[in-house]
Structure formats: structure tokens, C-alpha cells
Amino acid sequence: MPEAAYDLADGAAPDLPAESAPVRRARVALIKRLADVVSLPSSRVNAFERAITSDLLVEILREAALAERERVARRVVNLTDIPYELLRVLLLDEITVAAPLLEEAAIPDPELVACATAGTTAHRLLMARRRELSELVVDQLSQTGEPEVLQALLKNRGTRFTQAALERVMAASRRDSQLLAQLLRRPELRPSQAYVMFWWCAADERRIILQRFAVSRDVLQDAATDVFAMAAAEEWSDPLVRKALQFIERRQRNRAAQMRSPYADLDAAVAASETGMTREIAQEIGYLCGLKPTTTAKIFTDPGGEGLAVLCKSVGLSKARLLTLWRSMRRPERTSTGETAPALANTLAAFDLMAVDRAQTVLRYWNWALTSALTPALLQAVREGDEEGLAQYSLPERSAFLALSPQPPR
Q: 368: domain range?
């Protein structure tokens, strides 16, 4: 293509002083020729020739005008093997230069990771929208914590999240509620992660969690039927086995706690709260339900009532008893127009939504993750809000951290 045609097709350069025009035309022509050589098929140019040409092109591009760099990016976008140094320079250039490559070019993962690390938010946002992204690249992009980038990653069905990246997005969703809806649609999200997210979700997201992620334990119960007898014969001496079987077993109410309780049974303890819920009654209800104090406190102090609904359904309490607990905590039942208060309506809907066994799965995971994982180091991290150090903890420990640490402002 003649020089004039190249200029007209790709946008004419701005007018320059007469004395610099010849230099300008020569530079434009040289950049075009070098880009043409780099773009030749392997049958026309060998690897060494391509590499040398690319090095020359990179040196000139460092001093070239923006329009010239944009032309080169558009020229090489369809190459399957853009020379490494040329690709790196173009990717880290202004977003108008990098955009065609980030949107369409075949780019190796290491180059995408380097761009995600050194580029701008605009670079990372375009990258997050690519048709396909490997776990390696998604992991790097998730480390920035930029809400718009995380949102684009979640919406992109061509992405694959590592569990570490997913947990970063979970942590970010505590500060940015707009991430929640997309996060709950991700196929990589595990039930255990959804149960933890429950505590900072609004009513709509909580309903999705209880509908989609509350699973039955029938298979586990059938598989472990004979193990209960073995553990009993060993007097429950293995703490790991005891903890796992507590999660699996069908019975939710704590028989041992009922024998020591000042109340005849769980229903009597709930009835005692009719005159007003106290810390002592709440703790006793928790013991009778087989819960640790931390789990009980989390449920009773939660601003929403869906957790309370899960508790009541798990232990076989009626909807009338749920209403008793609601009133004992002095929570509103009616709006100023006489309708059911939204929080109570959501609580009653959650109660009707769940089967007993599925509610027990959610409740027992909370009890396991919020209590068995509370080591002194984790408690210190919760107090300090140390999200950066989460990687050193186990899954239940990380779950406890996210559920118990103070809710950040949104």
C-alpha cells in the first residue's frame, strides 16, 4: 500500500512545520514497513528476522506519536504470535493503544498477568471482559479489589475462578453489595461459602441462598450410619470424628443440655421469653438447640430474621414459636399502614421455604464454622480486621473471620 493510502486509511497525521514533515513521513513509513515485516507469515520471515525487526520497531515506538502506536496495535492484533517485547510495550501503553489487543488478540497468560499487575484500571477492566480468562489471570485481577473489575469478572461466563479468588470477591462483597447477585450465580461458589455470605446479604440474596444452597445430608447420613456406633463404643474420644458426626447426625436438639436445663424443654424456654428476651434465656435456647454461644449470639443479634427462621425450622419449633421469639426481641410486626413488617415477612417466608433437614445443614455449618475455628490467632485477626492474612487459615477459620469480623461501611 502506498504511503499516502496508509495515511488516509489510518488517519492523517497532524500538520507539522515544513522542516519536520520529511522526517515525519519517513518515520511513519518506517513504522509501517517494520509492522508489515513483523506481520508476515512464517513462510516469508524466519523467527530471528521477526525478532530483530520487532526490536527495531519497539525502539521507534517508544518515541512515536500516539496515533502511530495505535496503528501498529491494530496492525498486529490478528497475529497468533506477536513478538514478546512488542506485545508487552503495546499492552502497557495508553488504553487506546492496548484496547484492540486486550479485546481481540491472542495473548499468553504471563503477558496478561503482567498487564494486570502494571496496567491501569481501564486495562484490567477490558481484560476482565475477554471471552476467556484462565484461573491464573482471574486470580491476579481479583487481587486489585477494584469493584468494576470484580463485577466484570463475575459477569463473564468465560472466566474460571480459583477458590482463593472467589474468597477475595466474597470479602469485597461485604463492602460492595452490588457484587452479591452475580457472585451467587457463579458455578464455582460452594454451599459453605454461600452460608457465610448469608450474614451480609439482603433479604433477596438470603432467599436465593436458602433455596439454592441448603442441601440435604441424606447421603452422608446413610454413609456414616455404622460410624456412630463405633464412635460411641470409643466414648467419643476422637474430637475430629465427634465434630464431623455432630454435623451429620439427624437429631438437632441437645438432650444432655435439656437434662441440665431449668426449663422442661425447648418450647418452655421459648415461652419464658414472652415477657422479654434476656441474654440468659437466649443462651439457654442456644444450648437446647445444640448451638455454641457464638452461633447463638450471631443469630439473635442479626438485623434480619432469616437466621432465626433457620434455627426454628431446624429444631422443629412451630411458626407460632418463631413469632414468640420475634416479639420477645421487641421487633416490629406491623408497618404504619397495618401491613406485616418487611423483616418479619421475610423471616416467615424463609421459615416456609425450607425443609427441616436442609435447614439443619445450614445451621450446623454455621455452628461448625463460627465456633470450632475460633483459635486465639483468628480471634486476634477478627478484632484487627486483618483480611490480608486470611490465606494462612483453614476454610472454617476463614469462614468464621468473614462472618464475625465487623461489617465494613458501604
A: 218-372
Q: Cβ neighbours of residue 76 under 8 Å, at least 6 residues apart?
A: 35, 38, 39, 82, 86, 90, 101, 105
Residue 236, by phi and psi: left (phi above 0), alpha (psi -120 to 50) or beta? left
List the beta strands (DSSP E) in 214-302. none
Band the pLDDT of 164: cuts 50, 70, 90. confident
| Cβ contacts of 224 within 8 Å, gap of 6 or more | 245, 248
Residues shown for the chain: 410
User: Same domain for 238 and 313?
Assistant: yes
Contacts of 176 (CB under 8 A, 6+ apart): 147, 150, 410
Calpha distance 108→333 (Å, rounded): 58
Same-domain pairing of 42 and 125: no
For residues 117 and 45, state if they share a domain: no
Whether 82 and 158 share a structural domain: no
In a domain, residue 283? The reply is: yes
Residue type, position 380, single letter: Q
Distance CA 100, CA 391 (A): 36
d(CA 127, CA 156): 11
Q: Is 18 helix (H, G, I), strand (E, B) or coil?
A: coil
Global pTM reads: 0.75
Specify the DSSP element, H or E, that contains 131: none
Query: Is 165 a domain residue?
Result: yes
- For residues 384 and 199, give the distance between their C-alpha atoms in angstroms, rounded to a whole number: 19
By the 10 Å C-beta count (0-12 exposed, 13-18 middle, 19+ buried), 385 is classed as exposed
Cα separation, 115 vs 84, in Å, equals 13
Mean pLDDT computed over every residue of the chain: 83
Res 387: pLDDT:
52
- The set of residues, in sequence order, having a beta carbon less than 8 Å from that of 372 and lying 6+ positions away, is 243, 396
Does any domain span residue 194? no
Place of cell 441424606: 218
Mean pLDDT of 179-204: 91
Which residues are CB-neighbours of 399 under 8 A, at least 6 positions away? Answer: 192, 193, 195, 196, 369, 370, 373
Sign, Cα dihedral of 83, 85, 87, 90: negative
- Same domain as 157, residue 82: no
